[in-house]
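Supplementary Note 2. Why include the ligand at all?

Several targets in our set were suspected to adopt different conformations when bound, so apo predictions alone were not considered sufficient. For every target with a known small-molecule partner we therefore ran a joint prediction. The input for 2-OXO-4-methylpentanoic acid is given below.
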Amino acid sequence: MKSTALTAVQIEKATTSRIRQVDFENLDFGKVFTDHMFVCEFKNGSWQTPTIKPYQAISLFPSASVFHYGQAVFEGMKAYKDDNGKILMFRPEDNLDRINKSAKRMAIPEFPKEFFFDGLESLLKLDNEWIKPGIGNSLYIRPFVIATEAGVRASAAKEYMFFIICSPAQSYYGGEVRLKIEEEFSRAAPGGFGYAKAAGNYGGQFYPTQLAAEQGFQQIIWTDAKNHEYIEEAGTMNLFFRINDTLVTGPTSDTILDGITRKSLIELAKYHNIKVEERPVKVNEVVEAAKDGSLKEMFGAGTAAVINPVKGFGFRGERFELENVTNSYASLFKKELTNIQYNVTADPFGWRYVVE
Ligand code: COI
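The joint prediction is reproduced in token form.
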């Protein structure tokens, strides 16, 4: 459902565009940002008039709460363009719901729907030229909120800033992806905030991921913090396993991100009469399936990564490689999903959102 804007976003346009300096054929994920950004401040107990202004550095006091206590949440979304120049998004209401769910967990005030959609659509229209048509091209949209109140008292801030910045994107992972099943470090614990897209959930993964990278893995497969017995997620993606012809994925919980791509794939699988099981997935089950050949596919799903086949994984020093399969579920889902996202086919699920 579309929202009606209650407050007009105040717009200050950039006097020149940086778009000619960008090589759209060779984009490094998340490095280049469009000409404009959306900013809205929270102070005196309410969100103020939202603004769009030229993309620029911001000024904060060194004591700003976000630098000390990490009170920050974010989202990842994408805009696409069809061959007629129409701008499209994918289930954007779900991103707003999720950032507000993440915000609540971090004691950050929720952001109003009207401001979000008014700001986002105005921003996409202003930076329209940065969204390139063609499957595989997209504009990665990063909404985020930070605690800006100056002062190092360890309590929830009273001032925040909500931003939306946008970056033209192609693929997130270049080349084959191999993952390490992690048993030493943990990403999230029950009762914690693993389900939230909180900045600290990501920062805490970097060191173990660096160690895994030294062994040739692009990412980590996180396992439950208590016994490291069950598979959780891969940090930038939810994980799917095809065991024989059944698609298996872990259930969402307070330690796993409720991925929008994840839940879309579950619906797509059901639509195609593919047997899908959302249930706790044991590490041992995956290792055994890799050994006996019943693990036909493994892939990650996320906004940035889309659907990324996993070529192999490591566990307790042993390496497992997956054979290439023809007619893979990953390629079927990717095709169906991108056809909906880029307005190539009908959208029986009502996921597509047209920016008009
Ligand atoms: C996304 O898929 O948008 C994510 O949040 C992963 C990201 C940390 C690159």
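The chain has two domains: 10-169, 178-341. Residues 100 and 110 are 5 Å apart (CA to CA). Comparable summaries for the other entries are listed in the accompanying table.
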